[in-house]
Design a protein that fits this description.
Length: about 280
């Protein structure tokens, strides 16, 4: 029983471990040798899959744009136009400022996050086993020492990077619309205010604390919501895959349900980004 539990535990741990690369005193190292490397450890599977999917997104949309016609559109052009109109409609309804960046940014976020989430529908053992076979066949490695996580959004580093990018845009839009002094006033003179100057000065520390918490909570909520939902879904796929051939009907049922999660989480990330940037672009009260 203990051996079975250990085997199941190691199976789950293997599927939830990223392929790592780091620089040590002995040179470039990989995976287990990076356990003590610290902050500068690269998750090369997350980087490779996210960049690759981003390139696929650009190629598909560029190809559709080049072949676009004013007549009867083809299936690909029609599908792309539906996505663009869907995103543009949400931007028009939600973003109340003026910026040429928001619509392309929202489209990029929605499609890119969707594609990264979509990797969760690939059977959990297929690509990791293939990577293990390549490592064992061509590099003489133990296949169990080859790691491959193919869903970038199950890596907190990826979702945090996306959220930090949105956070920096929020700061930039705040300063652009209100100026540095206006942004500082927004952080220190709200939500509590008073016509009495002395009381208002006393309220500044409380306002600053509350506003900073609210500001920093936004990227945290973006990163953790996306990561938590996709990580939980991936973990369930791994547990289903551990039961052998009987996994197929259960895998299908969970995959059908998980499609909703995949689309919904991409949509939520896009909408929250638009809302946060709309708030940052609004005039100071």
């Amino acid at each position: 029983m203990a051996a079975e539990e250990l085997t199941l535990q190691s199976h789950i741990q293997h599927h939830l471990t990223n392929a790592k690369m780091c620089n040590t005193e002995a040179g470039i190292a990989f995976n287990k040798a990076c356990s003590e490397a610290g902050f500068w450890t690269w998750h090369i599977d997350t980087l490779a899959w996210s960049i690759g999917l981003g390139i696929i997104f650009l190629m598909i949309f560029r190809n559709a744009a080049k072949k676009a016609t004013v007549g009867v559109p083809g299936k690909l052009q029609c599908f792309i136009e539906m996505i663009v109109e869907f995103v543009a409609g949400n931007v028009r309804d939600t973003f109340h400022g003026k910026s040429k960046l928001i619509a392309p940014l929202a489209l990029t976020i929605f499609v890119w996050v969707f594609l990264m989430n979509l990797m969760d529908l690939i059977p959990v053992d297929f690509l990791p086993a293939f990577a293990g076979w390549i490592g064992a066949t061509f590099f003489g490695m133990n296949s169990h020492d080859v790691y491959m996580k193919i869903v970038p959004t199950t890596d907190i580093n990826m979702t945090a990077a996306l959220a930090i990018g949105v956070f920096l845009l929020m700061i930039g839009y705040n300063i652009r619309m209100k100026g540095v002094l206006g942004f500082i006033k927004e952080l220190t003179l709200h939500p509590f205010s008073s016509s009495n100057l002395f009381v208002q000065i006393l309220l500044i520390p409380f306002n600053l604390l509350l506003e900073l918490i609210a500001l920093v909570a936004k990227p945290f909520s973006l990163a953790l919501r996306l990561f938590g939902n996709l990580y939980a879904g991936e973990l369930i796929f791994i547990l289903i895959g551990a039961i052998g051939l009987m996994q197929l009907p259960l895998h299908f049922v969970w995959a059908v349900f998980h499609i909703l999660v995949i689309v919904l989480q991409a949509f939520v990330f896009m909408m929250l980004t638009i809302v946060y940037l709309s708030m940052a672009s609004s005039e100071s009260h």
